[in-house]
Design goal:
alpha/beta; Rossmann fold; 15 strands; globular; 358 residues; six-stranded parallel sheet; nine-stranded mixed sheet
Length: 358
């Protein structure tokens, strides 16, 4: 087993630390190991219960005190792999420490207060933040995205997004991937409905099912469905194994399914294939994560190379989530750019859904 001291003997240019020592942390640490110029040197979790085992597995130093780790390790990049509760406090702490880069997991926030705090953070923080929507760099998705961007589908008309997990689970992933198929254009209007409230996962609370119609700023329309209401196009037994985004244009279609297939079908472009099975999925996941980490490091060199998952854009996506909630409450469409959400929005929605379940 490689020790932390042995790793330090071959110090790369970019030091990385990880906050959070759950299952996802090991996957991300392994992805950094594919980048010779970067190295994870330490891991912390606030309870101190998990970080020693992760540190031992990868030859890292373990911390319980995040401030101590930031002061001693002086990282170039911090990867926050905790659940969203209390994460804004961590991001503010990282910015105050002057860390150049920070990656965080989704969902980016849980309510309106956190949205506002994160917008304020962007006004003063020296740190550049981005969200880990790593499958934006998945090789099959990339083929589909490039085909759409090339104009192979002709004029784009429709974006279709669905996920078997909840809106705060996979729903923000598919919103980002769908928006990327439309060139990253912002959402203009949202009209939606929700049902049920699920507190079973404290890190991803939200409605059991959601469905929304979207209008993007370039006139393209879309549908966005999550949870039990999502269509199933595969035979997988669990909800989380359905993630699908598709684009439809005047002369063709393009589809990417995380656990199914990918295809582009148009007059001048034909490609496609299956996702390859679980082992292939693991390899592609690791590759996509490594490419995302490289994109973050490139952004550190050049402010003009912000990845599509940078925090300001991700906060627009979270505002779209909140607009869906508001539309469900008011039964009216929401114009995202001019709408200022009430601080109590999420609590109001939760209360209504709980009353309906009684």
């Amino acid at each position: 087993m490689i020790t932390a001291d042995q790793r330090d003997a071959h110090e790369p240019p970019y030091r990385v630390v990880v906050i959070g020592a759950g299952t996802r942390s090991s996957n991300h640490i392994a992805a950094y190991e594919a980048i010779p110029e970067a190295r994870v040197v330490a891991v912390a979790d606030r309870s101190g219960a998990r970080s020693p085992a992760v540190a031992a597995a990868f030859g890292l130093r373990a911390y319980q005190d995040v401030a101590q780790m930031l002061a001693q390790e002086k990282p170039y990049l911090v990867h926050v792999v905790t659940g969203p509760r209390g994460r804004v406090d961590l991001l503010e702490q990282i910015a105050q420490a002057g860390v150049p880069l920070c990656t965080l997991e989704k969902p980016v926030a849980l309510d309106v207060v956190e949205l506002r705090r994160l917008l304020q953070l962007l006004e003063w923080a020296p740190t550049r933040f981005a969200v880990s929507h790593q499958f934006r760099w998945h090789p099959d998705y990339e083929q589909v995205r490039h085909a759409v961007a090339s104009g192979a589908l002709g004029e784009l008309h429709w974006i279709d997004m669905s996920a078997g997990m909840s809106l705060s689970g996979q729903g923000t992933h598919i919103l980002h991937y769908g928006m990327e198929l439309n060139g990253g254009v912002a959402v203009r209007r949202v009209f939606g409905a929700v049902s049920g409230w699920d507190d079973a996962d404290p890190d991803h609370p939200g409605p059991v099912s959601t469905e929304a119609q979207l209008e993007f700023s370039n006139g393209v329309r879309g549908v966005w469905v999550t949870g039990r209401a999502a269509p199933r196009v595969d035979s997988w037994p669990t909800n989380w194994q359905h993630v699908r985004v598709a684009a439809y244009g005047a002369s063709g279609r393009a589809v990417w399914e995380e656990f199914g297939r990918y295809e582009v079908a148009s007059a001048n472009c034909l490609l496609g294939g299956a996702f390859g099975g679980v082992d292939a999925w693991r390899r592609q996941n690791l590759s996509a994560q490594s490419k995302f980490h490289r994109a973050m490091l490139a952004w550190g060199h050049d402010p003009g190379q912000a990845p599509s998952t940078e925090l300001r854009r991700s906060l627009h996506e979270w505002k779209v989530v909140l607009a869906l909630y508001a539309s469900a409450l008011t039964r009216e469409e929401v114009v995202v750019s001019t709408w200022d959400p009430d601080v109590s929005l999420v609590e109001d929605l939760r209360a209504v859904l709980r009353r309906q379940a009684e």
